[in-house]
Amino acid sequence: MINNSNATGAPDYSKKECWYQIPEITKDVDTFYIYPTVYMGTNEGDSEYAPLDSDEVKQGVEEVKMVQASVYEESTNVFMPCYRQAGFKHAGEVSKRTGNLDAAISGIPYEDIKAALDYYFTNYNNGRPFIMASHSQGSAVNKYVLKNYFKDHPEYYERMVAAYPIGYSVTKDDLESNPHMKFAAGESDTGVIISWNTEGAKNVEDNVSNVVVLPNAISINPLNWKLDDTYAPASENKGSLIIDEKAGKIDIGDVGADAQINLERGVIVTNANGTPIDMTELFGPQSYHNDDYGFYYNNIKENVAKRIAAYKASH
Fold first, then answer.
1. Assuming Cys at both sites, which of 2, 105, 107, 224 could form a disulfide with 232, CB separation 3.0 to 4.6 Å?
2. What is d(CA 223, CA 272) in angstroms, rounded to the nearest whole number?
3. Which residues pair with 134 in a beta bridge?
């Protein structure tokens, strides 16, 4: 049993077992990656927040590492802390009741990630530039980091190459009330936020409720890196992830993942050949939430390298 707590209630990040990954340092840029919801918490007696020693969480994080965090590994050293995330059931209930995930993630999950960042910057980062990356619930926490933690720590924030809180809305209101946060305007600006949610036409046409899509959301197009509704055909896609679950491996291929921003809803609309997430009550009938990374995998990988090169050229 892992000792989950120190005096503040957060995990003791000086202990290696409180990290899923502490990488060998082979690159001169880091990524701090906050994983999405992998703990369901749907069984009788399950806690609202994930235990750190849960096998369900470990298995989920391994899968996420393969299909999401791996996109950063070619260019950066990827750090992945454990944290007591909100269970899927609890997060869904909070979102339904309040309209967003804030009440579920602003306490325990954010406090844990704050403690992990404190330890990371003091003991692991050694002054290197870094990327803040995440998906889904991890991106909701990442937004809290961008809004609050980096407001309190501008000395770290100035070394941030970019933030990729993908799969949870960054909104116009977020930016207006936090002037230190800047959304990306193109493919190589730095110190900026890169984010989108991926849906099919049905979600947009029916204007359905989607737990990760908030009012006044903003998305950047992951194929042409524009903020307008210029259509990017699948021919601009440099390769999507294709998962072979039986073999437990991933390949790069073509699933027809085009991209166009629907400006009114603030999402990416695609005609990709994919399977919508089956939790329609929370995400609507045609959300490609699980493919926010996978559909655009090679384009993201290339973009990470481009922003790092731009950062190095200007520092």
1. 224
2. 13
3. 34, 165
DSSP three-state, residue 79: strand
| Structural tokens at position 43 | 């069984």
How far apart CA 290 and CA 208 sit, in angstroms, is: 18
Amino acid at 136: S
For the stretch 157-174, pLDDT in tens is 999 999 999 999 999 999
Q: What is the pLDDT of residues 245-280, one digit of tens each?
A: 777 778 999 999 999 999 999 999 999 999 999 999
Q: How far apart are CA 157 and CA 180, in angstroms?
A: 10
DSSP character for 93? H
> What token pair was written down for 166?
């993908």
Half-sphere exposure at residue 158, Cβ-oriented, CA atoms within 13 angstroms:
6
Helix (H) or strand (E) holding 27: none
What is residue 259's DSSP assignment? B
Q: What's the predicted TM-score (pTM) here? A: 0.94
Calculate the alpha carbon distances from 138 to 225, 284, 294 in Å.
Answer: 22, 20, 17
Q: Which residues does 91 contact at the CB level (< 8 Å), separation at least 6?
A: 37, 101, 104, 105, 137
**Alpha-carbon span 142 to 105, nearest angstrom:** 10
**130 by DSSP, 3-state: which?**
strand
